Amino acid sequence: MDLQALLDRAEILDCVHRYARGMDRLDGELARSAYHDDALEDHGGFVGRVDDFITWTLDYQARFARHQHYVTNHTVEVAGDTAHAETYYLFVATELDPAAPLTAFGGRYVDRFERRGGRWAIAARVLLVEWRTTLPCELSPAAFAAMAAAGVSGRDHTDISYDRPLIPKRSLGA
User: Does residue 146 fall inside a structural domain?
Assistant: First the structure.
């Protein structure tokens, strides 16, 4: 594999990761940056243009107290300025009610990427849900409160991952 092929694959995987991070931080602009302007999305309960999809999915995900998108196996076939990728995902979420079960989905993103103006982005995506389950919540309300007090995460630009430079808020000796 030549250097350009490795660079193309890395940029495409970065795009997939940017989408997942944008979804988890409810950062529509970041998630949107993974797509071309005229991209099409078939996301199970939604089929349409990317801008409408971003609005729809962020509204859906806001109903959860917290959630994470994991991407795992990733394959990509690059042919010139077009690439086809298959990426396995795991979506895990907790409802606003701390006693509600944990919800998990697994499946694949099947994507057509295009390089336009030197930039790789999603031109078309089909989401395949291959399984869904719920698991009992093992954390007590007190445990959830302790997690929140520790500053585990924010679902927007207040999340510590946006801090530049990163300085731990709970420094040693503080």
Answer: no
